[in-house]
Design goal:
- With 220 residues, this protein is mostly helical.
- The longest helix has 19 residues.
- The chain binds iron/sulfur cluster.
- The site of iron/sulfur cluster (SF4) has 13 residues, from loops.
């Protein structure tokens, strides 16, 4: 028997506020999974989180923060010592280089403080736009962009909120669809949904609260 065609979905602009509202209701606890107490700690944790799980980063950071509690201490870190501490997060040589370089730049150019603008953060060694967005949105409550990780990119494409693959273009599309005040939260919501329901390669469309809004929904 032929399956009935799905009714045509509304535009991304019309669906976006409904998607946001439903995800807010579904995941009221959505926040970054990285443990941190200040902007410096979040910056360190975010650099360590590249190609690594948040769970693994949270195992490593307590000792890193104890040994190097501020940018001045990290700037003086011996690279082999730091490398040993962060080895299990992967790419540890590059990460150690970034952490020490980042801390030295904070001491030299910012009085040992973490700046709160995209331009200044982005200029630090090892700090790209994504890391800067994480720190601005979660440590300072400043929304200048949307963090696009693999979950955010994948869900944005499945939900047809973007037609792009490039994270910068995906970010631009999301910024045009959602209110600025929600940009940091939006990332967390999409990441929660990507981990719990819209799982890569085996999305659970049958229990998804966005199924009626999703052009990719696979429902019998
Ligand atoms: S309907 Fe399916 S593909 Fe669409 S967001 Fe939900 S789980 Fe993902």
């Amino acid at each position: 028997m032929k399956r009935a065609a799905r009714p045509k979905l509304a535009s991304a602009k019309e669906r976006a506020p409904v998607i946001l509202a439903r995800l807010k209701t579904e995941y009221p606890e959505a926040r970054t999974a990285l443990n941190f107490e200040n902007a410096y700690q979040l910056l360190v944790a975010t650099i360590l989180s590249a190609q690594c799980t948040d769970v693994r980063v949270n195992i490593v950071t307590p000792e890193v923060f104890r040994r190097f509690p501020n940018p001045a201490a990290m700037a003086r870190a011996k690279k082999p010592v730091l490398e040993r501490l962060i080895q299990s997060t992967g790419f540890f040589r590059n990460k150690a280089k970034s952490l020490i370089g980042m801390a030295q730049a904070l001491v030299a150019d910012h009085g040992g403080e973490v700046p709160n603008t995209m331009e200044e953060l982005n200029a630090l060694p090892g700090v790209g736009r994504k890391t800067a967005n994480v720190v601005l949105g979660n440590a300072y409550g400043i929304n200048v962009g949307v963090v696009v990780d693999t979950h955010v990119a994948r869900l944005s494409q499945l939900l047809r909120l973007t037609r792009h693959d490039d994270p910068v273009k995906i970010e631009r599309d999301l910024m045009s669809l959602f209110p600025q005040v929600d940009w940091a939260l939006l990332s967390h919501l999409l990441i929660f949904h990507g981990r719990q329901v819209c799982i890569a390669r085996r999305p659970r469309c049958e229990i998804c609260v966005l199924a009626d809004l999703c052009p990719s929904a696979r429902i019998p």
